[in-house]
Amino acid sequence: MLIPQTRNVGLPMMNLLRFKGLPILQQLHIEEQLLRTSSENWCIINDGTSDPTIVMGVSGKPAELLEVESVLRDQVPVIRRFTGGGTVIVDCGTIFVTFICSKEAVPDLQPYPRPIMSWSSLLYGKVFQGIGDFHLRENDYVFGNHKFGGNAQSITKSRWIHHTSFLWDFEVRNMTYLKLPKRAPEYRSARGHLDFICCMKDYMTRSTFINKTVEATGTQFSLRSYPLEAIETGSDTEFYPSTRFLTDEELEAAAVAGR
């Protein structure tokens, strides 16, 4: 059953999926399926994920981005997702927000990476209005010059996805699994992970952030809550996701290559 949430006449419809602790691989499979097989607009909010997991972009190379031997020793799962962007380690302290839209959904928005990024920063500007020094810096959401939100995108012939991992909190030791990337934003200025990122918990509560995100989205779309079961039973299109875990063999080969 679809539950009406906001009815704003004249605004495009958007389905709202809200989860708490959904495993990140399952979330990414849902997102990829909705991008490839649905024609509707979607907002997905997942408040945390279960076990610490490394998520790499579609073209990421483990030997360049990960401390592979530590990852293998501690059995940290590594996912290669279907979108571009950088590498993150996510856990229960990460909040995920995703927008999947048809190219006509946002009036006058050109379906290219930079315009979509700019559109998203305006939406989140409403969420963080009066809180910290929020802005979009290169491809990151920052307070001042400290990153708390990383973005990734994929654009198809008729649709696009923009998804974000927000650092509400993080475990310091998890950052040791990530190398400093060779390609980094200029404003990072070669800072280490702990000098570069900050926690959103220092600025607002989880529930406030999620509620404000829904409110801000509701200014541009007419939202309706949508149950996961409707997705799982409602698609007649056979779908095989490309997002997957990397095997130990792949990581071991990367460890050898990185020596």
TrEMBL record:
List the InterPro entries: aa-tRNA-synth_II/BPL/LPL, BPL_LPL_catalytic, Lipoate-ligase_2_inactive
Enumerate the CDD domains for this protein: LplA (cd16443)
Q: SUPFAM superfamilies from the entry?
A: Class II aaRS and biotin synthetases
Domain BPL/LPL catalytic intervals: 39-225
- What PANTHER family does UniProt report for this protein, alphabetically? BIOTIN/LIPOATE A/B PROTEIN LIGASE FAMILY, BPL_LPL CATALYTIC DOMAIN-CONTAINING PROTEIN
Protein name from the UniProt record: Uncharacterized protein LOC110418764
**Source organism of the structure:** Herrania umbratica
